[in-house]
Amino acid sequence: MLTSKKVKEIMFSLGTDLCGIASMDRFADAPEGYHPLDVFPTCKSVVSFGCRFPVGTLLCKSDIPYTRVRNSITAKMDAIALDFCMEMEKYRAVCVPVPTNESQWDKNTDRWRSIVSQKHAAQAAGLGTIGRHSLLITPEFGSMVWLGMVLCDQELEPDQMKEPICNDCNLCVDICPVNALEDREIKQQVCWNYAFGDDEEKQVWRIACHKCRDICPYNLGSQNSILIKGE
After folding, report:
1. Phi then psi for 130, rounded to 5 degrees?
2. CA 140 centroid distance within chain
3. Which of 52, 74, 103, 150 pairs with 16 at a CA distance of 20 to 30 A?
4. How far apart are CA 71 and CA 101, in angstroms?
């Protein structure tokens, strides 16, 4: 019998730093068309995983390290999800990888969406909680994690969900240069238009803003704070 413990052992062996499991009842509020069952009708569990994102990228004066790490880690997460799915078939479990950083237009809400929300799945699987800045915050690494997900046709024991970490201090709201966080639901396109794009002077595509991540009191977590502050 395939257990949650075995599933996590496999996932950690592939290089993840965090792994949790969510049951189907935790996705009742998913937007129409974006529930795990809308993607994989026989899905019974969602396996969410995370890899730490190097905190040194926040300390750079150049945009390039953060941008390049983000692009590279996206490929890493997709590769882990694919390898996991193939490994699980050895245990007669059928799984489907959800792309880490690929969105499609949802005409019902006028927003770009992953086929299943990575951060909401991670929250449902007990990895952390979503903060006021709309990012997932984990106890271990703060918001410096990248997320992946696999839909599984096996009923696995779910993890306990975390209590809220963000305390709504609104520092992220105040620092946003384009006021994208004024409402509870982030102004997605406003944020993207400002933060992502070409630097015409240097002729390079880059991520130019992550101020909401930088200023969050919980952006590092217990393990990263030791690296940065020497505690």
Report:
1. -80, 130
2. 14
3. 103
4. 9
- C-alpha to C-alpha distances, 35 to 30, 38, 42, 118, nearest whole angstrom: 5, 5, 12, 11
> What confidence tier does 112 reach under pLDDT thresholds 50, 70, 90?
very high
Supply the DSSP symbol for 231: -
CA-based radius of gyration for the chain: 18
Domain map of the chain by residue range?
1-231
Per DSSP bridges, beta strands 104-106 and 111-113 are antiparallel
Mean of pLDDT over the chain: 94
58: alpha, beta or left? (left if phi > 0; alpha if psi -120 to 50): alpha
Query: In sequence order, which residues have a C-beta less than 8 Å from that of residue 162 and are 6 or more positions away?
Result: 123, 126, 127, 128, 129, 139
* 223 pLDDT tier (thresholds 50, 70, 90): confident
- Token digits for 107? 């005409």
- Alpha helices (runs of H) in the chain, residue ranges in sequence order: 4-13, 36-39, 64-88, 118-124, 171-175, 188-195, 211-215, 221-229
- Backbone dihedral angles phi then psi of residue 47, each to the nearest 5 degrees: -105, 115
E-strand ranges in 55-187 read 95-98, 104-106, 111-113, 129-130, 136-137, 145-152
pLDDT tens per residue across span 51-96? 999 999 988 999 999 999 999 999 999 999 999 999 999 999 999 9
For 187-209, what is each residue's pLDDT tens digit? 999 999 999 998 888 888 999 99
Tell me what the mean pLDDT of segment 89-111 comes to: 94
Contact predicate 96/85, CB 8 Å: yes
